[in-house]
């Protein structure tokens, strides 16, 4: 059985982390824990949401991909992916679209790309405020080149990614369930 990783991509605020949590809870699919130098938010835990690193410790890791975003570093290591695959033939991770391109290049068909979007991009600003990001942080985020890049599926990934619309959580869960159940029916993972 070929091991695969669901790569959830999209702009900040589209619900990537919520989808990842849902998949883990409902289907017992392990998450590939990624690394970041950004500060921990209320309710987050080291080794669960991210491995929270200092700039120095971040540089010591062996990354499959890494990126700087809004002044912080983010990355996922091959070791982290292998730890998730040791638990299941299917794992899940949350990346930006640049990371999704790298995963596709490095892992080929083992990377199952999911791009999440919304109908109204103004909704994303509201979601960022709701999750506790301050006005300055939200303004910095939505004006960053990375945020603007992630608002659309990159040309390199067109035709290679599932596109999920997250205007409504119930509808989104139905889309996710359909993809996972179809994959199970096709025996893509055990």
UniProtKB/TrEMBL annotation:
Entries under SMART domains matching the protein: GuKc
Keyword field: Kinase, Transferase
Gene Ontology MF term list: kinase activity
Keyword Kinase set for record: yes
Leader sequence segment: none
Pfam family, one: Guanylate_kin
The keyword Phosphoprotein is annotated on this UniProt entry: no
Catalysed reaction, written as an equation: GMP + ATP = GDP + ADP
Gene3D superfamilies: P-loop containing nucleotide triphosphate hydrolases
UniProt cross-references to InterPro entries, sorted A to Z: GK/Ca_channel_bsu, Guanylate_kin-like_dom, P-loop_NTPase
SUPFAM superfamilies cross-referenced by the UniProt entry: P-loop containing nucleoside triphosphate hydrolases (SSF52540)
Chain ranges of the Guanylate kinase-like domain: 3-181
PANTHER family on file: GUANYLATE KINASE, GUANYLATE KINASE-RELATED
Task performed by this protein: Essential for recycling GMP and indirectly, cGMP.
Recorded family membership: Belongs to the guanylate kinase family.
Protein name: Guanylate kinase
Organism: Fructobacillus broussonetiae
